[in-house]
């Protein structure tokens, strides 16, 4: 593929509303040494796309500062973390046998080598992503899923939502037979948490809005708690013996109200703040019961390897809510922000 070829891409040149997403033509990126060039079949949307575009992440010491996921964004930036596609070229030092393979890209940029490295950057934020016809990625982050029965749209749904969910489950040490409470259960990460926790053999209690309760049950929840009204009272009624693990993407009041419901040695894993980041709780409920509050951001390489094994065997079935062509990326993000859907929204290049 010649370096002079151009491709369609959607990028942002600054923070703002959906209007800052622009469809443009840019050169097809050339794979550098150690990289692969992937032709994008499907790219799934995530809340991080909205927050990166809006600059909604804040910075240490300045929670209201306009910022990307891990600091200032280097504009212009092509968005999109979640890519499924096919390898069409490789850089020097990469096995040529990867060309032609159907792949999922691990979008994380890690702080170190090794299976337990921490993500410190994200494709579509700290490097160009998949709102485009082609994207480059380090070859070790390109996972061969050629034989998976999942569709390209389903595969694209996996990296951020299911990677984040599996990271939460692993860090929270969720075991078979434990009772788990999942907040925001109809969202991308929430639905992934329900499916993965059920596959692990946990008793799954899920918090969701009433209209989406059936979809959350279908994903594997044993009981769905309506998030309208007295949620704490409903949780106590559903789990009078207490909760072993909470997998929480909402935070806010749920943390202060719910922490006393943890059983001895319980774990509260937080991976989002949809309900508010400024949280208070009674710290005595933490230390007197040997409980833990655990922050969880995305996944490690080991978690992602585990996720790809699940994908190859179709042991989870991502739900795709809607698809849009690349040129309708702004409409797709607006649809995502309305939160009226269940499952993932996917763009086709």
What is the percent of helical residues? 10-25%
Mean pLDDT: 95
Examine the coordinates and then state which fold CATH places here, giving the name of the CATH topology of the largest domain. Quinone Oxidoreductase, Chain A, domain 1
Strand count: 18
Structure characterization notes:
The chain is built from ten helices and 18 strands. By secondary structure, it is of the alpha/beta class. It has two domains: 6-160 and 299-348, Medium-chain alcohol dehydrogenases, catalytic domain (Quinone Oxidoreductase, Chain A, domain 1); 173-295, NAD(P)-binding Rossmann-like Domain (Rossmann fold, 3-Layer(aba) Sandwich), CATH 3.40.50. Strands 3, 5, 6, 9, 10, 17 and 18 form a seven-stranded mixed beta sheet that branches. A six-stranded parallel beta sheet has the order 13-12-11-14-15-16, sandwiched between helices. A three-stranded antiparallel beta sheet has the order 2-1-4, with no helix packed on it. α10 (329-338) links the parallel β17 (320-325) and β18 (344-348). α3 packs across α4 and α3 (158-171) packs across α9. The protein is globular, with a radius of gyration of 20 Å. The relative contact order is 0.16.
Provide a quick synopsis of the model.
By secondary structure, the protein is α/β, with parallel strands linked by helices. The chain has helices at residues 47-54, 152-156, 158-171, 188-199, 213-219, 231-238, 253-258, 284-287, 301-312, 329-338, and strands at 6-12, 21-27, 35-44, 77-78, 82-90, 102-105, 108-110, 119-122, 134-138, 142-144, 179-182, 203-208, 223-226, 243-248, 262-270, 292-295, 320-325, 344-348. The chain folds into two domains: 6-160 and 299-348, Medium-chain alcohol dehydrogenases, catalytic domain (Quinone Oxidoreductase, Chain A, domain 1); 173-295, NAD(P)-binding Rossmann-like Domain (Rossmann fold, 3-Layer(aba) Sandwich).
């Amino acid at each position: 593929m010649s370096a002079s070829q151009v491709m369609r891409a959607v990028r942002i040149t600054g923070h703002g509303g959906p209007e800052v997403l622009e469809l443009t033509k840019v050169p097809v990126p050339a794979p550098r040494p150690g990289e692969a060039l992937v032709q994008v079949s499907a790219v799934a949307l995530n809340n991080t796309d909205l927050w990166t575009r809006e600059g909604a992440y804040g910075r240490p010491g300045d929670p209201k500062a306009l910022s990307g996921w891990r600091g200032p964004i280097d504009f212009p930036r092509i968005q999109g973390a979640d890519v499924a596609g096919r390898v069409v070229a490789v850089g020097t030092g990469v096995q040529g046998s990867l060309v032609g393979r159907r792949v999922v890209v691990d979008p994380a940029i890690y702080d170190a080598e090794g299976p337990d490295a921490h993500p410190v950057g994200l494709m579509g934020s700290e490097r160009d992503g998949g709102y485009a016809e082609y994207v480059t990625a380090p070859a070790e982050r390109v996972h061969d899923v050629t034989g998976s029965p999942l569709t390209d749209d389903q595969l694209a749904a996996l990296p951020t939502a299911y990677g984040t969910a599996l990271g939460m489950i692993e860090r929270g040490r969720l075991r078979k037979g434990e009772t788990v409470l999942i907040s925001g259960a109809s969202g991308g990460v929430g639905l992934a948490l329900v499916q993965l926790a059920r596959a692990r053999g946990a008793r799954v209690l899920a918090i969701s809005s009433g209209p989406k309760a059936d979809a959350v049950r279908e994903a594997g929840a044993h009981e769905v708690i309506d998030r309208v009204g007295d949620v704490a009272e409903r949780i106590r009624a559903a789990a009078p013996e207490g909760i072993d693990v909470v997998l929480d993407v909402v935070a806010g009041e749920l943390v202060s109200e719910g922490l006393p419901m943890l059983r001895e040695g319980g774990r509260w894993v937080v991976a989002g703040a949809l309900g508010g980041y400024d949280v208070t709780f009674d710290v005595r409920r933490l230390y007197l019961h040997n409980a833990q509050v655990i922050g969880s951001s995305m996944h490690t390489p080991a978690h992602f390897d585990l996720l790809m094994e699940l994908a190859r065997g179709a042991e989870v079935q991502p739900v795709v809510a809607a698809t849009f062509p690349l040129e309708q990326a702004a409409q797709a993000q607006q649809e995502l922000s309305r939160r009226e859907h269940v499952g993932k929204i996917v763009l086709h290049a």
